[in-house]
Specification:
385 residues, HIT family, subunit A, 2 domains, 11-stranded antiparallel sheet, metal-binding, zinc
């Protein structure tokens, strides 16, 4: 059943942290919080300098060298949770109680520098065209890792994941993704915006607090370049063609009026699900209120189904692919790629020689079998709703 759009009732409350980083509170449409927010009164060290990128001359890829990330917190106890609201004994990153909070990462892989701010944070090896020469290839090339990295807190609670939140809360997170995609896409030098959630220690998560991240890159990422190459070869209707084929086949796991989820034909991972809008939209900022409303319901159901596959929570990476800011927007469609290395209750798929070194994948689970198992798990979730 369609639900009224919550867009107009989700309130944004922007502020700054003690060291000048942006913090935006997103209040649920049905929030119980008042409008007041505490001031961050901590005494903080200056932010680290913008990291440096180095180009791999063999592939043309840019590698960000962000040494400050070595200092980030590693699986702290609940009483030292840096994403919980501040208390007298826990000087965390967020001063007040919140529904959803988005703030600039303290130790980012990209930023805080941006082109045009060279006098403040100079490029490592400036070129006359700024960052316009990133597509060139040469030996020992460096550039500043300009851009932004933001943390998206799904809840003030210490543990959980996005799938464990209410529909209203998931809707607020989607609104945050859309709002931040629009804002970050407008920053100078940003070429692509990527919202994602890493869930579980098997993925490498360093905080149990339910949260995700948003990266704003100064280049179009290698995976997206490959997608652009495919749309160049097969036409700008590639994603529409994929969706039409999948909707007529055996791998669909969830479908609504505006969105559909399926296990792809050539899934690499033991669990891999793609979720696409039925009309072409390049990113979250271009989605309608009705699309965001339905996504809150379907995405929550999908995540809960993933967790019903086994008796314990499933580790995953939920990667929201968006079209680049300046190219391919008529061809690349917003879509989720959710992947998990879990191939059995007590077994993980590790990327060994063939996958890690050569990019030559071997799938352990037939996609049709994976789709059937996930459909059954989703059916159990829906029966309990």
């Amino acid at each position: 059943m369609p639900i009224d759009s919550a867009t107009a009732r989700i309130v944004q409350r922007p502020t700054t942290l003690a060291d000048g980083r942006d913090l935006i509170y997103f209040d649920d449409a049905d929030t119980t919080l008042g409008p007041e927010r505490a001031v961050d009164e901590r005494e903080l060290d200056p932010r680290p300098a913008t990291a440096t990128m180095r180009q791999d001359v063999l592939t043309g890829d840019w590698i960000s060298v962000a040494a400050s990330r070595q200092n980030r917190v590693m699986l702290p106890p609940a009483e030292a949770d840096p994403l919980a609201p501040q208390t007298p004994t826990n000087p965390s990153e967020i001063p007040s109680r919140y529904d959803v909070a988005v703030f600039e990462n303290k130790s980012p892989s990209f930023g805080p520098g941006l082109p045009g701010l060279e006098a403040e944070r100079p490029l490592a090896a400036p070129a006359p065209a700024g960052l316009a020469d990133l597509a060139d290839l040469g030996f020992e090339r460096t550039r500043a890792s300009v851009g932004r990295c933001e943390v998206v807190c799904f809840s003030p609670e210490h543990t959980g994941s996005l799938g464990g939140q209410s529909v209203s809360r998931v809707r607020t997170v989607i609104e945050a993704w859309a709002s931040r995609t629009e804002a970050l896409s407008a920053l100078p030098g940003v070429q692509q915006v990527f919202p994602f959630e890493n869930r579980g220690e098997a993925i490498g998560v360093t905080l149990h607090h339910p949260h995700g991240q948003i990266y704003a890159y100064p280049y179009v990422t290698p995976v997206t370049k490959r997608l652009l190459a495919s749309t160049d070869r097969l036409g700008p209707g590639l994603f529409a063609d994929i969706l039409a084929r999948e909707l007529a086949g055996p791998r669909v796991v969830l479908e609504g009026e505006h969105w559909a989820a399926f296990v792809p034909f050539a899934a690499r991972w033991p669990l891999e699900v793609h979720l696409l809008p039925k009309r072409h939209v390049p990113d979250f900022a271009a989605t309608s209120g009705a699309e965001r409303d339905e996504l809150a319901v379907l995405y929550r159901t999908l995540l809960r189904g993933v967790d019903r596959l086994y008796d314990t929570p499933t580790p995953y990476i939920a990667a929201w692919h968006q079209a680049p800011v300046h190219v391919g927007r008529d061809a690349l469609r917003l879509h989720l790629q959710l992947t998990s290395p879990r191939r059995a209750a007590d077994k993980l798929k590790f990327l060994a020689g063939s996958e890690a070194a050569m990019g030559a994948w071997i799938a352990d689970v037939p996609p049709e079998a994976a789709a059937e198992r996930l459909r059954l798990a989703i059916a159990r979730v829906e029966a309990e709703a």
